[in-house]
């Protein structure tokens, strides 16, 4: 790779010396050329620094994010998360590009080549600068013999040449693949069409131009560098030591075979040198004003990423004069950095269940719209990264009075989110969409901008502690049909407190499943109890709706009730409740050991608590988002199915890569009739293609959503939606009934 310009801010040895194992710097450029180069380089650095300063000034307008401890942890656990990048972010994840290669190995490999190619070339430039501009100059001042201080010759030079050449080639190959993928393979995720926007209502041509300028610029720099070096090798007559630059050497041989004479290469060399130098300088100056900014932002964003911040949502911004976000100053610096980190890779766009179902939401576009709005509010730093709209509305509008929630981001977009976290999980650069969406929803809730059905549900929750609007006394009605009375954990000590949840308590279609679980636990001798009418909704989805005051109210009540109950551990039927109790309540000072009922069942089955008659059925299992993705409970339900002797056939989207049923984040309380396809229907179709008899669920809401979806898609005749507890019940051999009453029996 070249060190004549970008790789060689050097003055010495501009003449070629055939005996020296090194290369001439500024060869054929002349003193005037050197001066021009240094002037341009200084201008470049100034432009670059100015752009970076403006970006940093923008982030500094944001609030504290409390993430420095996260960054510190990431820095000091270098390899953590390399294999499971979604859980831990670290220097190792950044260095290996593990988050980019996850579920996209070829892209990860190509990006790895580009990433390390440019890092090594940059370090090569720094090395030369140290040699020529620091050691040589210092040596001249101190001893009058700067040449003897230098190390850029001999064996060092040969190794240096080989390393830089190989990494330059890796970058060219990686970049070539990424460009072919973007320009010819054209995967869906790289299509910039907006969700639910008329095609003539916006233009994203500048996005496309910016992408190609970025990728094309990098490729041009690499290619002109290699060409420039090859012409120098040809022009200096193939010095033997230049074989250590294998790529450039091969190219030089190519020049030779094409008939380029040594004198022509000698004379033409400055053209290549200047082309490479000017491209490189222009690109460096362009970085902070373009998509290339992600090269600086992403590393920090990945290190500052905290997945726990989606499990336990951030508190509202502290300004008491308004709720939610209404200005840049309401965002945290991490949220502002998130916006600049987006590479438009489209992975979140592809997996989002709202977008899949035809809702007007794409997490990618939400980030890009916010980015454009923040950029406009900050005086406009980006040059090409702009969407245009003919009517100058939306994110393109420079109008500072446009509200963010309900303006820059339409209310229906914000309400479309199921908070499934698929976007956060898949984003390779650590962007946390859900927290930002909920902060914006808080503004909508404050102004009452919401579905009437949601409003009713929230009123019910505030008045009765449940979204059904039924009286608290009705909560334990499902227990009445049991033979034994379930212990009241408020009145007597129990080992397990069963936090039943609203749906498993109030929905008549689900009551039998609750009773089945109660009977099985009783049969296994498990000591458990419930809170009867004192159990209130845990508040998980209320918080995700953005109703922070109601969330606080529910949590306060539940913590008080739990404090007066006598139990060792909690288990719950509801993954949403599990998330709240495990992750939200500790921040409110209440920490419990919380299990999902599948974890308890797996333990009971494996410890021989039940006598099992294997079912031998072919089933598939749906991981609820709040269980599988949020809380990583993916193995316990599978262990249950294995213990029951079921053959599990996995759906393509499984475990933490599961697909949302469409009910989360309060969506279950909203109208979904406008969707072109409900996420639950999409999921049932995925399962129906597997030729299995059962679609097994482990969440009461899933039971409701998927039973309906199986009917509406016409798959209910061949695919039975079953709660996992129903399968356990069918497999467990029941104890023999008590002997018949001997009274009156024949003697
Ligand atoms: S959380 Fe789920 S529904 Fe919401 S934007 Fe992300 S992927 Fe879409
Ligand atoms: S938010 Fe993340 S996943 Fe979505 S397009 Fe941007 S970089 Fe890709």
Which helices and strands occur, and which strands form pairs?
Elements: H1 30-60, H2 68-76, H3 91-96, H4 98-101, H5 105-142, H6 154-185, H7 205-235, H8 246-257, H9 262-286, H10 294-304, H11 308-311, H12 333-341, H13 347-351, H14 353-356, H15 363-377, H16 411-415, H17 422-426, H18 433-447, H19 452-464, E1 487-488, E2 494-499, H20 502-506, H21 508-523, E3 528-530, H22 540-545, H23 548-564, E4 567-572, H24 575-584, E5 594-596, H25 597-606, E6 618-621, H26 625-629, H27 635-643, E7 647-648, H28 679-688, E8 694-697, H29 700-712, E9 720-723, H30 724-731
Parallel strand pairs: 1-3, 2-3, 2-4, 4-5, 6-7, 6-8, 8-9
Helix pairs in contact: 1-9, 5-6, 6-7, 7-8, 7-9, 10-12, 12-15, 21-30, 25-27, 28-29
This protein binds iron/sulfur cluster (2 copies).
The site of one iron/sulfur cluster (SF4) has 14 residues, from α13 and α15.
Shape, per Cα inertia axes: elongated
Strand order of the largest sheet: 1-3-2-4-5
Main sheet: strands, sense, barrel: 5 strands, parallel
**From the helix content, strand content and strand pairing, which structural class follows?**
mainly alpha
Low-confidence stretches: 1-12, 742-747
What gap, in angstroms, lies between the N and C termini? Answer: 105 Å
């Amino acid at each position: 790779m070249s060190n004549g310009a970008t790789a060689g801010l050097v003055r010495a040895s501009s003449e070629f010396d055939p005996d020296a194992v090194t290369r001439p710097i500024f060869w054929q450029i002349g003193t005037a050329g050197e001066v021009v180069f240094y002037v341009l380089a200084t201008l470049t650095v100034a432009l670059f620094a100015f752009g970076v300063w403006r970006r940093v000034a923008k982030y500094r307008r944001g609030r504290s994010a409390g993430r420095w401890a996260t960054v510190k942890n990431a820095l000091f656990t270098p390899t953590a998360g390399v294999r499971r990048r979604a859980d831990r972010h670290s220097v190792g994840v950044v260095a290996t590009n593990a988050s980019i290669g996850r579920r996209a190995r070829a892209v990860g490999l190509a990006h790895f080549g580009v990433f390390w190619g440019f890092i090594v070339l940059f370090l090569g430039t720094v090395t030369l600068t140290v040699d020529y501009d620091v050691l040589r100059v210092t040596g001249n001042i101190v001893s009058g013999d700067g040449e003897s201080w230098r190390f850029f010759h001999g064996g060092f030079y040969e190794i240096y040449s080989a390393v830089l050449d190989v990494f330059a080639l890796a970058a060219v190959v990686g970049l070539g693949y990424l460009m072919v993928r973007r320009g010819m393979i054209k995967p869906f995720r790289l299509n910039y069409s907006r969700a639910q926007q008329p095609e003539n209502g916006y233009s994203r041509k500048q996005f496309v131009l910016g992408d190609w300028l970025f990728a094309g610029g990098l490729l041009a720099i690499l290619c002109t560098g290699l060409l420039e070096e090859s012409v120098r090798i040809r022009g200096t007559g193939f010095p033997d030591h230049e074989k250590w630059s294998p790529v450039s050497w091969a190219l030089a041989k190519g020049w030779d075979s094409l008939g380029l004479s040594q004198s022509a290469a000698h004379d033409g060399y400055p053209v290549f040198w200047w082309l490479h130098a000017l491209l490189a300088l222009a690109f460096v100056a362009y970085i902070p004003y373009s998509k290339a900014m992600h090269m600086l932002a992403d590393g920090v964003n990945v290190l500052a990423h905290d997945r726990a911040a989606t499990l336990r949502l951030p508190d509202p911004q502290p300004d008491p004069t308004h709720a939610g976000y209404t200005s840049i100053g309401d965002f945290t610096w991490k949220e502002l950095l998130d916006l600049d980190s987006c590479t438009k890779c489209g992975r979140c766009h592809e997996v989002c269940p709202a977008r899949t179902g035809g809702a007007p939401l794409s997490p990618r576009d939400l980030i890009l719209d916010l980015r454009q709005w923040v950029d406009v509010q900050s005086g406009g730093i980006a040059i090409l990264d702009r969407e245009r709209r003919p009517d100058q509305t939306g994110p393109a509008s420079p109008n500072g009075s446009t509200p963010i929630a309900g303006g820059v981001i339409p209310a229906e977009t914000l309400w479309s989110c199921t908070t499934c976290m698929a976007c956060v999980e898949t984003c390779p650069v650590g962007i946390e969409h859900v927290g930002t969406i909920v902060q914006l929803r808080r503004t909508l809730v404050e102004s009452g901008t919401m579905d009437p059905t949601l409003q009713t549900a929230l009123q019910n929750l505030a008045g009765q502690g449940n979204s059904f609007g039924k009286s608290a006394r009705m909560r334990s009605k499902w227990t009445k049909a049991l033979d034994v009375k379930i212990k009241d954990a408020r009145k007597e000590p129990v080992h397990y407190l069963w936090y039943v949840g609203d749906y498993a308590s109030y929905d008549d279609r689900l009551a039998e499943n609750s009773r089945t679980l109660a009977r099985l636990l009783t049969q296994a001798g498990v000591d458990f109890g419930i809170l009867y009418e004192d159990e209130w909704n845990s508040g998980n989805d209320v918080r995700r709706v953005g109703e922070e005051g109601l969330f606080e109210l529910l949590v306060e009540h539940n913590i008080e009730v739990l404090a007066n109950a006598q139990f060792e551990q909690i288990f719950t039927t509801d993954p949403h409740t599990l998330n709240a109790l495990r992750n939200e309540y500790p921040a409110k000072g209440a920490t419990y050991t919380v299990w999902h009922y599948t974890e308890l069942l797996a333990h009971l089955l494996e410890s021989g608590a039940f006598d099992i008659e294997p079912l031998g059925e072919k089933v598939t299992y749906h991981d609820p988002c709040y269980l599988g993705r949020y809380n990583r409970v993916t193995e316990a339900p599978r262990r249950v199915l294995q213990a029951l002797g079921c053959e599990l056939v996995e759906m393509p989207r499984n475990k933490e890569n599961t697909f949302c049923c469409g009910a989360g984040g309060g969506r279950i309380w909203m109208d979904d009739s406008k969707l072109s396809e409900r996420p639950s229907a999409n999921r049932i179709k995925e399962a129906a293609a597997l030729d299995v008899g059962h679609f097994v669920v482990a969440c009461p809401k899933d039971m409701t959503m998927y039973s309906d979806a199986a009917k509406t898609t016409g798959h209910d005749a061949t695919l039975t939606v079953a709660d996992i507890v129903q399968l356990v019940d069918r497999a467990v051999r029941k104890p023999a009934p008590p002997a018949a009453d001997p009274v009156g029996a024949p003697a």
